[in-house]
Amino acid sequence: MADTDDVHISNATNPDLDWSQVRETVLMLNLAMARLTHAMRDGDDSVDTLGHSFTKMAGHVSFMQDTVSEMAEGETRNNLLEHCASIRGQVDTAIMAFQFYDRLTQRMQHVSYSLDGLAELVNTPHRLYNPIEWKALQETIRSNYTLDSDKKMFESLLQGESIEDIMKVAKESSGQNEIELF
After folding, report:
1. Which of 14, 20, 89, 119 would bridge 29 by S-S if both were Cys, CB 3.0 to 4.6 A apart?
2. Cα separation of 39 and 46, whole Å?
3. HEC letters along the chain
4. Is residue 145 part of a domain?
């Protein structure tokens, strides 16, 4: 077994005849995947905490609203019911924001999986130059999409549309603020 001093690793800062832009690409893809995974983990913890808090708040508001509804008619009762309705509206808005976060997280996971598959393919010489392997990777990526808008973007890219045009269409359709079930 060789000392670490005897081991030579070919890379962009220390290239030799074994240097490969594919290996460098894989390194960059692996870094991107690691950063995405780390960001998702950090975000998930915070959103889980917020989600539990809003769920508890919704329960407390329902209890207060039910209790206040049993009070005798009057200005105090009406004011409390208005405040309960306002809080419930804010909780509903927060829940919608969580749905958008879920969509973001799902997309980031798909990017991570896609980058992982791509890194694996380009790091395997017999697969790298095989069109069947590339088609299989595309099919795997396509099968992981659950949002119609993401499927459409992927298909547009495979049909040769530019990223700029694809993003313009995506931005226009995202202005509709639809929540898709996934």
Report:
1. 119
2. 11
3. CCCCCCCCCCECCECCCCCCHHHHHHHHHHHHHHHHHHHHHHHHHHHHHHHHHHHHHHHHHHHHHHHHHCCCCCHHHHHHHHHHHHHHHHHHHHHHHHHHHHHHHHHHHHHHHHHHHHHHHHCCHHHHCCHHHHHHHHHHHHHHCCCHHHHHHHHHHHCCCCHHHHHHHHHHHHCCCCCCCC
4. no
What are the 10-residue block averages of pLDDT along the chain, 182 residues in total?
56 68 79 83 82 88 92 92 93 86 83 87 86 94 87 90 88 61 38
Q: Residue 9: its pLDDT value, please?
A: 65
Q: 14 has which bridge partners?
A: 11
Query: What total number of domains does the chain contain?
Result: 1
Query: Tokens 């130059």 — which residue?
Result: 129
Domain containing 26: what range? 21-99
User: Is residue 10 a part of any domain in this protein?
Assistant: no
The pLDDT, as a whole number, for residue 45 is 81
Residue 25 lies in a domain: yes
Q: Which residue matches tokens 């005798």?
A: 72
Q: Say if 88 falls within a structural domain.
A: yes
**Calpha distance 180→77 (Å, rounded):** 38
